[in-house]
Write a sequence for this structure.
C-alpha cells in the first residue's frame, strides 16, 4: 500500500525493506519481537557501512 502512494522512483524502491513483528508497533513490550528488531537494525547497519574495518 505504502509504495503505491509514495512518490519514490521505482529504481529506489529496492532500497526499502519491510519487517513485521508479532507485537505490532510495541516491539519493546515483546522480547522476541525486540530481539528481531535488534537483529534487523544490526543487519541494516552492517549492510550500509562503507567504512573499511
Amino acid at each position: 500500500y505504502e509504495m503505491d502512494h509514495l512518490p519514490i522512483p521505482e529504481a529506489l524502491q529496492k532500497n526499502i525493506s519491510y519487517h513485521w513483528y508479532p507485537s505490532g508497533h510495541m516491539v519493546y513490550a515483546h522480547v522476541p519481537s525486540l530481539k528481531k528488531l535488534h537483529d534487523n537494525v544490526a543487519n541494516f547497519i552492517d549492510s550500509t557501512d562503507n567504512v573499511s574495518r
The helical segments are 2-5, 10-13, 31-48. The first helix runs from residue 2 to 5.
